[in-house]
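Form P-L/3: holo structure prediction, ligand magnesium ion.
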Amino acid sequence: MMELQIEELISQEDLEKRIQEMAEELDRVYAGKELRMVGILKGSVYFLCELTKRMKTPVTLDFLSVSSYGNGTSSTGVIHFNKDLDESIEGLDVILVEDIMDTGRTLSFLMDVLQERKPASLKVITLLDKPSRRLVSIEPWMTGFTIPDRFVVGYGLDYAQNYRNLPYIGVIE
Ligand code: IMP
Ligand code: MG
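OUTPUT (holo model):
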């Protein structure tokens, strides 16, 4: 694809420092428990790996994938599963791990669907949050970085499926 200019917004060093703090906070909150961490494919995988490998709390992993229907520029807010969880979450302490919360529609839909499966607890962690774009009333339980309304890539986040493997968060110029 065409080479685009990318300006660094959050360095790899700052990402890793913040993720270390988040891991320590999770260990404090979930001390003595076990956690099911659910990654939302594909954007959350870099964050999920970096976070969980810094945690001491016993963790099991599962993944799901969703798409939102829309006409390209405006999403209709209708979301469907491409891939559901492999395992039941009933009675488990569950954390949904997302790359970025934008309008909030994806996580609001997922919280409703997963809550019906009767987890012991269900919380949302996002690496990035763009609160200025919110259309649905939902807040993450824990956020890595709050960012302005810019389109970002890297550390799992894509532009047309590219740039996920950048080790930092960048803004497309
Ligand atoms: P929401 O339902 O609007 O909160 O959508 C969140 C999803 O939109 C994320 O999981 C990303 O896939 C995508 N997204 C939102 N903002 C960005 C961005 O700045 N860069 C890359 N993907 C984004
Ligand atoms: Mg995504």
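COMMENT: Residues 62 and 169 are 25 Å apart (CA to CA).
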